[in-house]
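We give the entry.
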Amino acid sequence: MTGSARTPPLARAILAGDRRALAQTITAIENGDTRVSATLRALYPHAGSAPVIGLTGPLGVGKSSLLSVLIGLLRERGKTVGVVAIDPSSPYTGGSVLGDRIRLERKANDDGVFFRSMASRGEAGGVAASTREVARLLAAAGYDVIFVETVGSGQVDVAIRGIATTSVVVLVPHLGDEVQTLKAGLFEIADVFCVNKADLPGADLAARDLSELVALGAARDGWAPVIVATSTTRPAGIEELWRAIEAHEQFLDQTGLRVAHERARLSAEITDRVKDRVGHEVAERLDHDVELRRLLDRVVARKIDPAGAAEELFRTRYATR
């Protein structure tokens, strides 16, 4: 049997550019459908080359508009683009609320752009657990650049570091809390700072404040975050923003950090997957496993604390040595 014959039909369709097959597989990933596991395994060797650009920042800074003009720039250069836009989840249905596919302006008949909005489902930083898998899927499908736009709910969207090769933190001059936001942690994840809506008053001051913060901080892995001012209404600064992103991607290749960062991301992903699987298993067994229910009864009766119960469970059920 040839390698092609062993490749699942859905994987062959995605490699051949079938957008419907791609959309169906993403839906299966979101729904936790294990029937696509063989397809994902077959596509994994094809998913390693495309840069993944994360766009994060507080609500209202214009991330979707910025993404739209960035896509336009890349399409003019002949590059194909895959986009995953993470939306807040509905507390009732679990589905996305904002529907970024509506807000993103693009040509409906452009086969060089594939857009998918996904619900955050309450994941930390607004990055759904399935986002890594979907980004890899888009890369395997042959898209040259992958964008991940996060919720940006005003909290620290540090989870984007677990998926993006380059993280762009977007701010605007009239927020008035850039420094406080950075103290909360966004400074730690930024490879590029984008001061968007630069046509508004205060843009120069915001960029200068950021420059001072960058100068005071230690460069992470030898890279000092680049600061770019942009406007999507003129538009202006879009070319400079993309050059800054490209510069960071080249830096990763030149220093060998791309491989090091990828190892760290995959290590964290493997750990998260194991924790999720064990957690789901324990939760299910608590409903019908007599031994686990007795352990829970001891915790409820204050005969053992939760930490001690977890240690006992791990030692008796999961520890191998």
